[in-house]
Write a structure and sequence with these properties.
378 residues; alpha+beta; Nuclear Transport Factor 2, Chain: A; 2 domains; six-stranded antiparallel beta sheet; five-stranded antiparallel beta sheet; 25% strand
Length: 378
């Protein structure tokens, strides 16, 4: 009986437990570790970034700007450059600054018509201590066989007695197409029209510049071409896309020679020789370049010598010639150049720096031309 009571008690306890509410034991969630390490990204600059739209949505147009670089045309240098109207104007001012009046006079094709006799021109500016240029916009027109350029210019003269005065002009320049000349002589860039007129003291440069070309019959402004650069031309580019007619120094003259050859302007190339007998007839000279496609050059150290008003220069050169058949030839040699002191030349025409002699030898393409140039002018 006792066992029956115990069994009944156990059954009752079990039934009470089963009917009582239960509390679930929480199961901790597993920690999820990312497969990629996340780091905080901090800006390296305090400036807010600029967001650019995709390139497909935005067309970037580069703005072309031409910056006029300073040009030294003081009496301390020698500048005789007919490559562009601007370089000729700088050369004109340089000639006056150096009192080389026959050279300045020679930049006009008919100087008597605009600045009088050479003697009067020399006397007018003999007391000049310095001259400064203010060049306006240079405009161009390509007519049949000729390029024309016009430029308003203000000259500020300072005399040796400290008197300052200004002159204005509207120059018309003419350049016959050099490639059109079939035989010498050649007519290169020159001042076709333009005198020097006093500027009243009560008119500033800007107003004087605006009125300088009033009343002229020049058609260059109506042509609508963009203004020409005032910068010097690049002597490193001897190719046909550049134009170099520069007699300021030995390297400049030889560079002009090669540039003329590359542009097939053989009459111009011939004109850089002072003595035509040194290269024979023009026909033979031009025929020598019949198979020349392109000439490039490396120059050595120029050697100079002066005496009794005469200046001589020697320039070693390694020239690389690309022929029309596609071969490459290298020549090493020396050019000799001569200039009679422009300050003492007294009779027109003015004789600029020119080549008097050239001696060259064909060398192997793999030879050290630097060493060869060191003794090329010996």
């Amino acid at each position: 009986m006792k066992q029956v009571l115990i069994s009944l008690f156990i059954i009752m306890v079990f039934m009470i437990t089963a009917c009582s509410p239960q509390t679930a034991t929480p199961i901790p969630e597993p920690e999820i570790t990312p497969s990629v390490e996340i780091t905080e990204i901090r800006p390296t600059h305090t400036i807010s970034p600029t967001l650019a739209p995709p390139s497909a949505e935005t067309e970037v147009v580069a703005t072309e700007t031409t910056i006029d670089l300073p040009v030294d045309y003081s009496a301390a240098v020698y500048l005789d450059d007919r490559s562009t109207p601007a370089t000729m104007l700088f050369s004109l001012a340089n000639a006056i600054n150096r009192h080389e009046f026959i050279r300045a006079y020679a930049y006009w094709s008919t100087p008597f018509d605009y600045i009088g006799l050479l003697e009067a021109f020399t006397n007018n500016y003999a007391n000049t201590s310095s001259v400064q240029l203010n060049i306006g916009e240079i405009h161009s027109e390509n007519a049949v066989g000729t390029f024309y350029y016009s430029a308003p210019v203000i000259f500020t003269f300072t005399n040796s007695d400290a008197v300052v005065y200004r002159m204005s002009s509207c120059f018309l320049f003419r350049l016959p197409h050099p490639e059109d000349f079939g035989e010498p002589p050649i007519d290169l860039l020159h001042i076709l029209k333009g005198g020097l007129n006093p500027v009243p003291v009560d008119i500033n440069d800007d107003n004087a510049m605006m009125g300088a070309c009033n009343g002229t019959d020049y058609g260059t402004y109506a042509a609508g071409n963009p203004p020409e650069s005032h910068n010097l031309e690049s002597l490193t580019n001897l190719g046909p896309d550049n134009y170099i007619d520069n007699r300021s120094g030995a390297v400049e003259v030889v560079s002009s020679l090669y540039n003329a050859v590359n542009r097939k302007e053989y009459v111009r190339a011939f004109s850089y020789w002072q003595d035509a007998a040194a290269v024979g007839s023009y026909a033979d000279f031009a025929a020598d370049f019949a198979d020349t496609e392109m000439v490039t050059a490396v120059f050595g150290t120029v050697i100079s010598d002066a005496g009794a008003g005469q200046y001589y220069y020697q320039v070693p050169v390694a020239q690389t010639v690309q022929t029309t058949s596609g071969t490459t030839q290298i020549f090493v040699g020396c050019y000799t150049l001569h200039l009679s002191n422009p300050g003492i030349q007294a009779v027109m025409p003015f004789e600029p720096l020119g080549i008097t002699k050239g001696q060259f030898a064909l060398v192997a393409n793999d030879m050290d031309t630097t060493t060869l140039m060191e003794r090329a002018c010996n």
